[in-house]
Amino acid sequence: MSDLPPLPPMSAPVKRSITIGGHRTSVSLEDAFWRELRGMARAGGRTTAALIAQIDAARPPEVGLATALRLYVLAEIVKNRA
């Protein structure tokens, strides 16, 4: 018998195109991360693309954009839980 709680709904990563600093790029994230990013952007009074651009500008070069976005979402959720 497992003590693991039921897993949340899961989806494969979804690739979306965005414009950052005037150039188009694409990012693959699971739907749950896209939803959270959109909500965080709205709460901050900016577009999702603007939030992603800010995260992109702040991330270390050795960290991929998708990873930076996931870690940002996680950090915001943890911060708001406290």
Number of strands: 2
Q: Enumerate how many helices there are, as a single number.
A: 3
The amount of helix comes to: 40-55%
**Neighbour order of strands in the largest sheet:** 1-2
Q: Please tell me how large the radius of gyration is.
A: 14 Å
The H-and-E topology, N to C, reads as EEHHH
> Low-confidence stretches at least 5 residues in length (pLDDT < 50)?
none
What kind of sheet is the major sheet? 2 strands, antiparallel
Global outline: globular
**How confident is the prediction overall: mean pLDDT?**
93
Hey, roughly how much beta strand do the residues contain?
15-25%
Our measurement of the CA-to-CA distance between the termini, rounded to an integer number of angstroms, reads 32 Å
Q: Decide which structural class fits the backbone.
A: alpha+beta
Our count of domains comes out at 1
Domain Ribbon-helix-helix: 13-76
Organism: Paracoccus versutus
Pfam families: RHH_4
InterPro entries: RHH_dom, RHH_sf
